[in-house]
Amino acid sequence: FYESVYKNTRSKFDTYVKKGTLLHNYAHIFELLSRLRRSADHPYMVIHSKTNTDSSQKSFSFPSRSTGTSDVCGICQYDIESLKECAVSNCRHTFHKNCITDFINEKNDEGNEDDELLPTAGGNKKKGKKKRGKKNEVIPDCPVCFQPLSVTMELHGGSDGKSEKNSDTDNNEDESSLCVICFDNKRDALFMPCGHLYTCMQCYKSLNHRSCPMCRKDIHKVIRAANSSDTTPDTTYSEKQMSSESESNEIAKKTNRSVALIGRQSILQRIKLENFASSSKVDGVVEEVQKMIKLPLKKGEPPHKAIIFSQYTDMIDLVDWKLRTSGIKAVRLVGSMPVKERQSVLAAFRDPNVQPPIPVILMSLKAGGEGLNLQEATHVMILETWWNPQVHNQAYQRAHRIGQKRPVFAKLFVTQDTIEERMHELQEKKQLIFDGAIDGSAKAMQQLTEEDLQFLFAR
Q1: pLDDT tens digits, residue range 355-397?
Q2: Where does this protein have compositionally biased stretches of type Polar residues (predicted)?
Q3: Are 96 and 196 part of one and the same domain?
Q4: Which one, of 227, 182, 224, lies nearest residue 207 by Cα?
Q5: How far is CA 104 from CA 67, 95, 108, 353, in A?
Q6: DSSP state of 225
């Protein structure tokens, strides 16, 4: 796959060289490099990227059985096939109804077990008799972001892609997906907490009273739903793939589904997760985390934890999903998260008593590369090489800083025989120049070439 992407990008690069316009196309060159770097992380980051799903920007497409369109459950980590199965939290995380119901019941049972331990006169605790009547309801935290959980269990309206197309209309729109007020725009305004998805955002903004036009309840929050037809790529399939009637019907179902996506935007919404295929780098990260968890601990020593940095939120999504499906709880910190959510995620990662334990936090380099103190972590993993070597040092120093009492292990993941190897060599050369000029290291200076020295003294 990487070779295919490399040949495509190399031909475009050679075109700029032949025309003599290489120095005038920095933006295009950066895009070519970015595509190569993404493909070294995981093929899905090219196949299901936002730019590749946009028909106006799409340069090439790949047929893939992994193409899907659905929200993802934050507990079981699998596709939510329809709105009837979907529950959404106030923090915009989606769940299967059964999964979130079981989660809430489990937390309530844990809370009631704690209430049964009554304090005695001596200060000790003993089991007390259960009080008759209703159990005390416990408001748990969201299992994804650890904010107080508020869930809308019933969603109404939208489209599950199962209704018939109306052939009488000129634009062949699905009537069940059109706004009930204007009948022009698609339904994309989900009202909370009533869960009605019957209107568009434009009509919602024109309402005189902020109450649901379907049930007249007050609207506390509005979630803008995305439509699958706007995010699913127009995948081109070869004649060989369309050879059998059953295959063609299956592909038609995948590409023609029109589903309202409620959850936060993620590359996982564009992947059919039951057909998920991993990459060598994703598997390598999971393997390293599993090794870290199994490391022996001294008496009274807290468990080992890891900070994983990536430049791409798509890669964070994929690694997060793979870790969770491997039984490893992880939290994430990215730039789009609200301040309160960042605080709750960091508090959960730092808390040694949280159950289940959280051994991993995933961060984007821009959001978590500076200003954070995470001495609880003993491992730092960087998934992509950055142009400036000092960015890596900043990332390592999130754990290796004043107050850290244990050794910190830093690891950089580089995919063999890809552009990442060449970037790593360039970065090492930059680091040698920095060490030789700033630290006065004779060994570093001896490894520099004449061209490197001329570069230092060039004006």
Answers
A1: 888 999 999 887 776 678 899 999 999 999 887 778 888 889 8
A2: 228-246
A3: no
A4: 182
A5: 32, 12, 6, 20
A6: P
